[in-house]
Design goal:
The chain is α+β, with helices and mostly antiparallel strands and 638 residues long. Helices cover 12% and strands 29% of the residues. Strand 20 and strand 21 form a beta hairpin. The structure holds heme C (HEC).
């Protein structure tokens, strides 16, 4: 194929979009660029990868689709990662029409010169004189720091308090080589940190030095936290996690050897984002999907995925039960999209979060996301209660009705956009189960629309109180996780102005609410922290989960700011800007960025946090930071 021909077809394509598509600035710029290129006397200067990009990718990657990274951010990526996204990742459908050569061209073009592979990606390994201990005094074994997802770490385990938090200093930096995001929240057993990564490598890292005991390679990104089962009887220290291809793994915590692996075996688009919940010898794995993105292809019959939970035996990986958030099977609705492709429903209601255990009532609680196709289902944007033993859906309480949405709603050829067209108000954060002083139990739930609810677990989730703390939006409102000390609920709020769709006053920051009544106790606004006032670095929104210890709350923002708040007054007692460059323990240049999705972890006088999150307009980065008290304080804290 001659380059000139590609230029002509791209020109026609761009012209077509201006005439028929949404006439926005980026399309005009794209047209201008193509025209300028066409006018060049020599075609040698045209990067053929750029032409592929203009034709197949630019529509979404110029800042107009909120969740799609802006093309500029891809310069932080490795070409291999872009290829993975096209070949087997979230962009599979968008790249379906590209030849292998075109994929390589566009990957190299987008990564640009910044996408050089690191010289040596290997971590700093620990010596043989540093074995992993088989018994530990303390541990944090799950994402929610306990079965009820309180994200509360007791004083003995945390070793951090109001009195010493201002002494925290950066101790070491661990880098995920070549990664553009870090979002597997660290868990711990003794002196070992377990964490997953974008390239599917799971690491066992020494808390003191940052050296690595062993690594395990999963097939795809491990975004969930690693669930830890301490040794008991004959059973060794064992780890459990899921990847973005729907695989579930069990690995020996001492040496990283695979014990078993299995698969959700459900839908080709199924992914695991929420952390598997280990409880009573069983592993409860939440089911989410990337079909919301696949649906952007107007030729795709949208949609067939249903969220839910799959339960496995922790000992051998045998599936015990699987149940869906939507009981009815998706069927052809008889309706067609403008390309005459069937519309299939009901679909969606994915589970993004780690299930909450109600041992007394024998239930697992999860929150669900939106429906993908129309009509929206009654169990989307809902809190669901599944029976622990059988998987039966015992009750459902919907918080936002008629929410059907997928990525096609943002693009010119929005043929698969359901008639409801949003508002995409998932419950991304798990419900939190609290036993109040009065003896009553309450479920506290945060939603992307900026609401926090108190619900009655005795009455199928009947609403006891509700409080709107923010405006909400695509990244929340409350997005990934509340924290509570059992009396006060700490709600991080993002309130990010993504595309001006929700235009009113915003309240980014942290709210403290009384768990029993929902009364607001304090609010501390997250102030923008940057010199040039350019988005996205200036976005102060807090979307990542918060974490509480006695007297303190920790939360990190899109702009990379990590803060410790006084839990009684909301006063900021310590802060650190993680959006900067570092040298890692392996001696490499590394960078922090947005703190998003997973939250900080306080442990034995240390504070661990991931920084960097290439997604939408967020800031890429590839570090796990370890802050610690100076040695003397740390000894006293133990
Ligand atoms: C219809 C809109 C749309 C089109 C067309 C599109 N993308 Fe995307 N892309 C997205 C969205 C939305 C995401 C974020 C999805 C996610 O991370 O769940 C994304 C994510 C990505 C990512 C990051 C994947 C990851 O795992 O983080 C890469 C790389 C990418 N796109 C490349 C491309 C390339 C190259 C093309 C053209 C061949 C393309 N995209 C076409 C919407 C689109």
């Amino acid at each position: 194929m001659k380059v000139g021909e590609i230029t002509m077809s791209s020109m026609l394509q761009a012209t077509y979009r201006v005439v028929h598509g949404p006439c926005n600035r980026s399309v005009l710029l794209a047209l201008l660029a193509v025209l300028l290129l066409a006018m060049q006397p020599s075609y040698a200067a045209v990067d053929p990868g750029q032409l592929v990009y203009q034709q197949h990718c630019a529509e979404c990657h110029e800042g107009n689709v909120p969740r799609a990274p802006h093309n500029i951010l891809f310069r932080m990526s490795q070409p291999e990662d872009i290829l993975t996204a096209l070949n087997e990742g979230v962009m599979k459908e968008q790249a379906a029409k590209l030849s292998a050569a075109e994929r390589v061209l566009v990957a190299n073009y987008l990564a640009g010169s910044g996408g050089k592979s690191p010289a040596d990606p290997s971590p700093l390994m620990c010596g043989a004189d540093k074995p992993i201990s088989t018994s530990a005094k303390s541990s944090i074994v799950s994402w929610g720091a306990g079965e009820r997802n309180h994200r509360f770490i007791d004083a003995d385990t945390a070793g951090l308090s109001r009195d010493n938090v201002s002494d925290l200093q950066l101790k070491w930096v661990f880098d995920f080589p070549g990664a553009t995001r870090a979002r597997s929240q660290p868990t711990l057993y003794g002196d070992v940190i377990y964490v997953g990564s974008q390239h599917g490598v799971v690491y066992a890292i020494d808390l003191e030095t940052g050296c690595v005991h062993w690594t395990f390679k999963a097939d795809a990104e491990v975004r969930s936290a690693i669930s830890v089962a301490p040794p008991s009887g004959d059973a060794p220290l064992t780890l459990y996690f899921g990847d973005l291809s729907g695989n579930v793994y069990s690995v020996n915590g001492l040496d990283g050897q695979l014990a078993w692996r299995t698969h959700l075996n459900d839908h080709p688009n199924a992914i695991i984002t929420g952390s598997p919940r280990l409880y009573d010898g069983r592993l409860f794995v939440p089911m989410s999907s990337r079909e919301w993105a696949t649906a952007a292809d107007p030729n795709y019959a949208c949609c067939t995925f249903r969220g839910g939970i799959t339960a496995f035996s922790a000992a051998d990986g045998k599936m015990l039960w699987k149940n869906f958030s939507i009981p009815e099977e998706p069927v052809d609705t008889g309706k067609r999209n403008p390309l005459d492709v069937p519309i299939v429903a009901p679909s969606g209601a994915p589970v993004w979060n780690s299930p909450t255990v109600d041992a007394e009532r024998g239930l697992l609680y999860v929150g669900t996301g939106e429906s993908y196709s129309s009509p929206a289902h009654r169990n989307s944007d809902a809190v669901l209660a599944f029976a622990i033993d059988t998987g039966e859906l015992v009750w459902s309480k919907q918080l936002t009705a008629n929410d059907a949405w997928n990525m096609s709603c943002f693009i010119g050829s929005s043929y698969n956009c359901p008639e409801e067209n949003g508002p995409d108000m998932d419950i991304g954060a798990p419900p939190v189960l609290i036993s109040l002083k009065s003896g009553k139990d309450i479920l506290v739930v945060g939603q992307k629309n900026g609401f926090v609810y108190g619900m009655d677990p005795e009455k199928k989730g009947e609403i006891i109180w509700s409080r709107k703390v923010g405006l909400g939006g695509y990244a929340g409102g409350i997005h990934w996780g509340l924290a509570t000390d059992g009396e006060t609920v700490y709600a991080p709020n993002a309130d990010t102005d993504f595309i001006g769709r929700f235009d009113a006053e915003r309240f980014p920051g942290v709210f403290a609410l009384d768990a029993e009544t929902g009364k607001q106790l304090w609010y501390t606004r997250a102030e923008e922290d940057c010199e040039d006032h350019e988005k996205p670095a200036c976005d102060a929104g807090i979307s990542a989960a918060a974490t509480a210890v006695p007297g303190l709350v920790f939360a990190g923002g899109f702009d990379g700011q990590l803060r410790a708040y006084d839990s009684e007054t909301g006063k900021v007692l310590w802060a650190y800007q993680t959006n900067r460059s570092f040298t890692s323990v392996a001696g490499r240049e590394a960078h922090g960025g947005s703190i998003e999705s997973d939250g900080p972890v306080a442990y034995q006088g240390h504070l661990l946090v991931n920084s960097g999150y290439l997604f939408g307009d967020r800031l890429p980065g590839n570090v796990l930071l370890n802050f610690a008290l100076p040695d003397r304080d740390a000894k006293e804290a133990r």
